[in-house]
Design brief:
38% of the residues lie in helices and 6% in strands. By secondary structure, it is mainly alpha-helical.
Length: 183
């Protein structure tokens, strides 16, 4: 008796299929690999944000120091008359000014930054905003991406996590440093 081509194929498939135990072993191996790879991927993402924050913070601090050198020691938080003007802080760093600090599109100073960076750990809506205050350290409340101490003129990340312990210019006191989100 001749079997049909289709019936012969079914017999071969039954013999060639994986058993339940083999399938369980494959699923377990894939699960173990996922448990190893996924945490490393998540850490890589946080490490990238840490690196971006550190790079942006160092660039901003350096450019603020250059701004002060060009403007007779006066920081970007002050207008051309030496009056506190926090509303134009970002404009003074991303635009052009005269050597007195007056905003002027034809000014000979600046721009010091091409764009104002966002804090990668802050909520998107406030990541580029700045809080100004008298305290020497950031409030760490996520209300804005950045905090500028009007006492020292130093800029800090204003986030609960990801604020790196970077040395502040002229200060080696670690207690005055921003919080390290990994601790």
């Amino acid at each position: 008796m001749r079997t049909s081509f289709f019936a012969a194929g079914l017999k071969k498939m039954r013999n060639a299929a994986f058993t339940t135990v083999e399938m369980l072993i494959v699923v377990m191996v894939i699960s173990i690999l996922a448990m190893i790879v996924v945490p490393k991927y998540l850490n890589a993402s946080n490490d990238a944000r840490d690196s971006a924050l550190m790079s942006d913070l160092q660039a901003m601090r350096t450019q603020i120091q250059i701004y002060k050198a060009h403007h007779m020691g006066k920081g970007p938080e002050y207008d051309e008359y030496g009056v506190l003007d926090t509303d134009n802080y970002i404009k003074r760093l991303t635009g052009k000014t005269t050597n007195s600090g007056k905003l002027d599109p034809d000014g000979e100073m600046g721009p010091y930054l091409d764009t104002w960076p966002e804090n990668p750990f802050a909520p998107t809506a406030t990541a580029a905003n700045i809080t100004f205050g008298e305290s020497r350290s950031t409030p760490r409340d996520n209300s804005t991406g950045w905090y500028v101490s009007l006492t020292t003129g130093i800029i800090y990340p204003n986030t609960i996590k990801g604020a790196l312990n970077l040395p502040t210019p002229g200060n080696s006191d670690a207690s005055d440093q921003p919080y390290n989100g990994r601790g």
